[in-house]
Every structure is written in structure tokens, then in C-alpha cells.
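Bench log. Compound arrived from synthesis this morning; before running ITC I wanted a structural hypothesis for how flavin-adenine dinucleotide sits in the protein. Inputs:
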Amino acid sequence: MTTSDALVSRHLEALRTAVTGGVFVPGQDGYDQARQAWNLAVDERPAVVVIAESPADVARAVRFARSREMRIAPQGTGHGSAPLEPLGGAMLLRTVRMRDVRIDPVTRTVRAEAGALWQDVTVPAAGHGLAALAGTSPNVGVTGYTLGGGIGWLARRYGLAANSVTAADLVTPYGDLVRADADHEPDLFWAIRGGGGSVGVVTALEMRLFPVRELYAGALFFPLQRSAEVLHTWRVWTGTVPDEVTSIGRIMRFPALPEVPGPLRGRAFALVEAAYLGEEGAGADLISPLRALGPELDTFAMVPAPALQQLHMDPPRPVPAEGDGEFLADLPAAAIDAVLDMAGPGADIPLTSIEIRHLGGALARPARGGGAQPNIDASYLMFAGGFTPTPELDAAVRGQAQAVKEALAFWRASYDYYNFVETPAPDSAVLPPASYQRLQTLKASYDPDQVIISAHPIWPTRLGTRTKDS
Ligand SMILES: Cc1cc2nc3c(=O)[nH]c(=O)nc-3n(C[C@H](O)[C@H](O)[C@H](O)COP(=O)(O)OP(=O)(O)OC[C@H]3O[C@@H](n4cnc5c(N)ncnc54)[C@H](O)[C@@H]3O)c2cc1C
């Protein structure tokens, strides 16, 4: 179902009258800025961009699109825009101006509008001694992250962000504003908790917060030449730690850019990053086997919860980037060797980072009344990526990220992580099979015409034999 730009322009005034937010079409001032995703390597060219100001705007935009047989791609930041199908003929419905956040310290919950960034939640929540299940980056969107699962620094203790959702407001593909929670629209409530944004446009999420004021967290930096002993020691160590420890083993090649701190600029390191939900003394004991290796730089300290969002050194501003990831069923020593062969001291690769996140703990246990990702059936999570300021680098980084995935293919889990698969892939590749099948059925009843374009497509049951290319 597509709509020509000409049709859009004939009805443009009706859309502009209907919504209070911005409406932009190709050739118009502001279109390029409105369509720009956070990932600058992604070139989205929708027939129209609507910058919604309110849930009512979202509903009106959805009804407008539907009446013109136009498909809709909901989007906040555009951090997760890489896997999206081409948006020609579609409406890009952006929630960037809907960033209202309300913390309720009594019920320990937050209500965040669909365009809120994680920093909009973590900073005010900390004022009440509370923490959300945020990801590593302060500027990733709460909604896209949570709809796709959400694995952050508290994940082994408290599980996926998706399973901390208590309610969602969303606009259905027919333009109706509904509330989904345990007692209302239970199917929609189940679907949005890990199944991506394929059944409607979310306008707000409500989530549980957790009593976390400070943690013992930081990173140990070792020169890349020591990557073998560091990553092997980290791998063995992950088998010994309690659920209160979430950690990442990583190889990083820092670009020689002025904004990179002097001691790191232009250099390559093996790192261990970790967060421990507890006091300094116990934390120091826990990391002592890693500290005993003698890091060049050691940043571990007691930090307030929002500081976790600086720990992973995610880019503070939009950048062009490529990358891809996969769940790993297991991480034996041979898997670390495979990473070292690809990215160790002898390698000349354009990847900025190859990281392996330790899963398990609460992530492995089915959440009570959980959603489309009730738990994670994998022990580790790999992501490889890099910055791509030139087209040549774009191809090189994409190729190398795929090469890392292939090098680890033997240990790959039965499906991949929704939020870390940055290449076009159907939902069946990034969700547990039973969840994918239920989502197919729900898609058939809630969005049989495939109005909503989501990061990873889901084909309704009656189109079950269709492939993404047909
Ligand atoms: C620097 C960086 C760090 C990251 N760190 C982590 C991490 O620690 N843990 C983790 O799990 N993931 C992480 N991610 C992955 C991230 O969670 C995904 O890219 C996620 O999709 C981003 O959500 P967003 O809302 O910012 O992006 P968007 O691109 O705006 O949204 C992504 C997708 O979510 C859906 N969506 C968004 N808003 C709506 C809505 N209102 N209604 C319906 N559907 C909607 C759409 O399908 C959209 O295509 C990271 C990504 C980056 C770039």
C-alpha cells in the first residue's frame, strides 16, 4: 500500500489543519531536518513527516494516513532507524516533541510520553532515590528501547525494561486512542512489552522504578595488547558473579578526535565495564580478580544511578554509524578467541567497538505476567559497530560487523536481540518463536492492512507465507 507524493500534496492542507504539530513534505523547508534520524547514516525519505505535539495529534495523523491508504512509521529519536524498510510513500510520525515525564515516588512509577529520552527519566527519578531500567545511553528513546526489550545496567537484577511496563497509551492503526494494561486490551499490553511497535503508535508508557540511589560502577582499561588475558579472565569471572552485577567485556578503538579524552584518543583498549548494586567494599571484592590484572585506568567508584549512562561512552550527539548484534547461547573460551582473531592486537579493522554483554540472572527467568519477551534465552549479547563518516567506511564497517557475527555463528542463540539487529530482519528472527506466532495473530486482528511499519516487520497470520521481499 503506497501513496504518491502528489496525493499527499492535494490533501496536505487537511492534514495541516488537523494536527497542531509540524507537517513537512519533500522540497519544503524543514523537511530534511524533520526526517533526519539520530543515526546520520540513515537516509529516510517519507512522503510526509508529522511532528506530533500530543496524543490527539497522533490519532488525527493516523486517521489521515489511513484514509489515504498511507502506511505509518512511528519514530522517536531514530536511534533504531537502520533496520526500517524504505519509507517511500509513507508517513514518518515523529514523537520528538512529546517528552513530558511524571514520576510518582509513592507508587514508584514513571509515566513518560512517547518522545521522552532516557535522561528525561533517569535524572528526575534519581531525585526520589529511584532508578529506571534504562539503557547505556542517555539520549536513546524510552519508547523504542522498551518496546524492543531493553537491556541496561540493572538487567541481571531486575530484567528487561519491557517487563517493567505497567500500562501504555496507544493509538491503534484505526486511529483510536486506547489504554493497554493488565485489565484493558491485554493482547496489546502483551505485544508492546518486547514485541516492538507493530500494533499501534504508543503515546505514553508507564513503568516501575526501583529503589537505587547509588551503585559501585566503572570501567577497567587495559592496552589492547592485553586483550586475551583480560577477556578470558572476564569470561570466567562472569560465571562467578551474583545477579547484582551486570558487566560488559569489550574491545574499543577510540578515534583520534579532539572530543575523545587525551589518555584514550587514537588508542585501542580491552575493557571491562560493570555496575554492582551494592556498597563499595563488596563491589571492590567482587571486581578484585579483574583489578588484579593491573589496569592502566580504573574508574570504579560509588556513583549516582544517572551516571550509569556515561559508563558505556555512547556518543553524546547524532553520528553516522553502522553495526549489528546477536544473542549468544554460550561463550566458551573458543568464542573469545574468535573475537580476538577478528579484533585483537594484530587486526586492522574499522570497528570502533565490539562488546559482549553478560546476560542471565533475572533476564533468564520468565517475568511474572511478562510480555512478548518474557525472558531471554541466551547467556551473552554481542554488538559490533563503528562510526561511518564516509561511504567507504560505511561499507567496511557493515562488512566487518557481519564478519564478527559470522565468526561467532557457532555459539549463536536460536534468535537475536530485537534492539541490536540493525539490518533488516523480520520479527521471526528477533523474537522467541511462540511470541512471533502470537504477534502474527494479533497483527492480523489489529493491523491486517499492515498500516504500521515497525523496526522489524511482522506479517499477519493470513499473510504468513509472505516474505519481506514479496
Ligand atoms: C548509542 C546506542 C546505545 C544503545 N544502548 C542500548 C542498550 O543499552 N540496551 C538496549 O536494549 N538497546 C540499546 N540500544 C538500541 C536501542 O534500544 C534501539 O535502537 C531502539 O530502537 C531505540 O529506540 P528509540 O526510540 O531511541 O529509536 P527510534 O528509531 O525512534 O525507534 C525505534 C523503533 O521503535 C518503534 N517505535 C518508536 N517509537 C514508537 C512509538 N511511539 N509507537 C510505536 N512504535 C515506536 C518503531 O518501530 C521504531 O522504528 C542502543 C542504541 C544506540 C544507538
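What the model suggests: Residues 391-407 form the longest helix (17 residues). The two ends are 13 Å apart (CA to CA).
ITC booked for Thursday regardless.
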